[in-house]
Amino acid sequence: MDFNDMQNAWDKQNTNKVIVPTNLEKIQSANTPLDKIKKNLKNELIFQTLAVILIGFAPMIHGFIAKWLTPFYFVYSMFAAVSIYYLLKLFLFYKRLDKVTLNTKDSLYETYFDIRLNMELYKTFTFALMPFMVMFLLGFVMYSKPDLKITDINNTVLVTILIIITSAILFMGFITECWVEYYYGKYAKEIRKLIDELKED
Q1: Do 83 and 52 contact (CB within 8 A), yes or no?
Q2: Residue 68 or residue 126, greater confidence
Q3: How many other C-beta atoms are found inside a 10 Å radius of the C-beta of residue 111?
Q4: CB neighbours of 93 closer than 8 A, spacing ≥ 6?
Q5: Which segments of the chain does DSSP mark as H helices, in order?
Q6: How far apart are CA 52 and CA 92, in angstroms?
Q7: Between 201 and 197, where is the model more confident?
Q8: Which of 35, 52, 104, 128 has most Cβ atoms within 10 angstroms of its Cβ?
């Protein structure tokens, strides 16, 4: 039997009976929530990178006087270093997601736990930036009121400021939890649901 005969025999076979395993269909259905996570992460990486760069131009935008440039850029350099570290980690996570091929249970498990791990990394990133945000805000208050001296602040005002700062940090923590859950958590739950369904099968 030559090659043409083999080809004809192959063509005559009924290929309508080929059935894709249900498990494979379920595993590959995780691509939809995964695509949404990738899209959200890409948008955030672009937005946050631009935000870090633009903050560096704040003294020029607001016309800071010379004596404020050194303290601002001292705090900004630490802020930028922390931001670059975490943004690089999130970028590497994005690149890993871009290469994921969901064709086995193991790849689905691995991807799910990578998503959960990086959701926590995102939260840590936000908490790591909060002290810098407080310093920037305090610096802005001192800049806008140059006659204000630390000695002018009585205990009542100091306690009020500390309560406001603590409340603001806790509120930002709550907002971060909600943000991560809305943009990433609900899609991670969809993937987890698929994993649970595969266990039942």
Answers
A1: yes
A2: 126
A3: 21
A4: 41, 114, 118, 121
A5: 3-12, 22-28, 31-56, 58-62, 66-99, 105-144, 155-180, 186-200
A6: 18
A7: 197
A8: 52
Q: Which two tokens stand for residue 70?
A: 């050194």
HSE-up (13 A, CA, CB side) for residue 151? 1
| pTM for this model (two decimals) | 0.74
**In this model, does residue 179 exceed pLDDT 90?**
yes
Do the beta carbons of residue 62 and residue 139 sit within 8 Å?
Answer: no
| Pick from 157, 132, 130: nearest CA to 145 | 157
Q: Give the CA distances from residue 86 to residues 5, 48, 51, 74, 92, in Å, rounded to whole numbers and listed in that order.
A: 61, 11, 14, 19, 10
Angstrom distance (rounded) from CA 144 to CA 142? 6
Dihedral angle sign, alpha carbons of residues 182, 184, 190, 196: negative
Distance CA 34, CA 36 (A): 5
The pLDDT tens digits for 109-163 are 888 899 999 999 999 999 899 888 888 877 777 777 766 666 666 778 778 888 9
* pLDDT tops 70 at residue 77: yes
